[in-house]
Amino acid sequence: MDLSDSVLEHLRSAVxxxxxxxxxxxxxxxxxxxxxxVVYRAHDRELDRPAALKVLDSALAGEAxxxxxxxxPAIVPIYETGTLPDGxxxxxxxxxxxxxxxxxxxxxxxxxxxxxxxxxVAEALAFAHSRGIIHRDLKPQNxxxxxxxxxxxxxxxxxxxxxxxxxxxxxxxxxxxxxxYALGATLEFALPASAPPALRxxxxxxxxxxxxxxxxxxxxxxxxxxxxxxxxxxxxxxEPLSYRLRRFGSRNAVLLWLLAAYAGIKFLLFxxxxx
Amino acid sequence: MNKIxxxxxxxxxxxxxxxxxxxxxxxxxxxxxxxxVGSSFKGMLVGVLAGWFAQKVQSTRWGIVVGSVxxxxxxxxxxxMEATKEKSHYLEIMLPGFLxxxxxxxxxxxxxxxxxxxxxxx
Lengths: 275, 122
Hints:
heterodimer, A: alpha+beta, Phosphorylase Kinase, domain 1, Transferase(Phosphotransferase), domain 1, 5-stranded antiparallel beta sheet, 3-stranded antiparallel beta sheet, 9 helices, 8 strands, 41% helix, 17% strand, elongated, B: mainly alpha, 6 helices, 0% strand
């Protein structure tokens, strides 16, 4: 009996589905593939809520332990880890409904919103680094923006096998500075074409080819973003005089207007007196 | 530096500058020293009060309003004191005084450490 291609394809996918017997989860559908594992949408029978299940090769079971120890608003909380009957490791986590950053940016959010998202990503990264954990595969595809605007950094701790070169630092082995490179590349990706030179300079500094030329740590990059957002000069960019004057003017517009009004009144009074 | 001290300094500086501009009027040129001292003192009073207000209320808009009102009031006082039956300089004193008060009020909102931050650091 000959089987059609579609039937064969269906059988292949059915065989590949994980066996969740013995767990409290009910498989619903495949969501995607990343970090050398497959992510499924599942239903938690005990708590009657949706969950995301990531099924990994046994060799990568440590990924779950890495992330489970990270409690941060921008890191997806792990509900449970375990081993399936077929020997594959899995972990259950919060099901994030929203959009990947690369898709989210297609909706042309404002610059302020883009920076908000990047800052949340950087804060999660800084937190992880403080716990001795490196992401290794930071890129827009691994950042989720939830339906309420919450930001999650996904797919931790697994060096990409087929990574996106634009976001992967050139040095080997990867370390914290590689994450900073990837953060700079992600920031550069997220910036609109009309982004100010200061922001482009921050991204460029973060993704310098020489690791020693990058920001020493994520808080330093965050501090430069903060300086930009408060109208101060950034460390990454030696601004020309015209930009410095313009920045001074916009930060001190009220004071300059008051001083101009004072000078104007003085001149007018002097002029009127001598008429 | 707390906001009251900041107000004192800005009031002194801008008050002195305001007083110094009397040099451009021939009738007051000889009295510029005394005018500067008086104007500086007036500026310091405005600055201290604006700085005290800035310690309590962190609002640039209200800082400017309060500074302007204080500047106007003190300038009126000075103008009234020096007014004679033949001559008065209410406009020449009150208008600049109003603006100096606004400037000092603005600066006390922007510069200096508010009391809450000082308490937290302690």
